[in-house]
Amino acid sequence: MNDKGRICVGAIAGAFGVRGEVRLKSFTAVPEDIGGYSPLYSEDGQQSFSVSLIGQTKNGFTARLTGIQTKEQADALRGMRLYVDRDVLPALPDDEYYHADLIGLEVYDTGGTLLGRVANVLNHGASDLLEVKPDLGESVLLPFTIAAVPTVDLATGRIVADPPEGLF
């Protein structure tokens, strides 16, 4: 069910208290914005929730989810990733992209040679990295910077990359 029509905006870290509240991690640019998106869906789309943020914890929020009233129900949701319909999210400026929009795009070098497809978008602190999977061989981590990735064309499903020498 999870296709490019839904974007992951958070995850449930576990129960908080005894009345069904949860600890919620937000993956939105402005973390509090997760409370304004409704409904949020489980990855398979079988469950949906409205969210009310009630407090903050280390690395996230405490929240109430509709239909969750006991600690046991909240515990059962631990680790669940939460998705929102894409059309609910705001449009982005020209130089920003939702990770889900990049996954699957073909990556070409500046000479037009296919390098592979974007398998994942990773962030280990400094900046985003595109995991590019060639048809044969191991994945390569390409820095997602203007210098290394000068062109992203969502309309044609292509990325033009100018990778550092020797990366591919």
Estimate the helix proportion, in percent.
under 10%
- Approximate shape: elongated
pLDDT average, as an integer?
90
Order of helices and strands: EEEEEEHEHEEEEEE
Q: For the largest beta sheet, what order do the strands appear in spatially?
A: 11-10-9-8-13-12
Describe the structure.
This protein has 168 residues and is mainly beta. It has 2 domains: 6-88, Elongation Factor Tu (Ef-tu), domain 3, CATH 2.40.30; 99-161, SH3 type barrels, CATH 2.30.30.240. 6% of the residues lie in helices and 40% in strands. The chain is built from 2 helices and 13 strands. A 6-stranded mixed β-sheet has the order 11-10-9-8-13-12. The protein has a 5-stranded antiparallel β-sheet with strand order 5-6-2-1-7. A hairpin with a 6-residue loop joins strand 3 (40-41) and strand 4 (48-49). The radius of gyration is 19 Å and the shape is elongated. The mean pLDDT is 90.
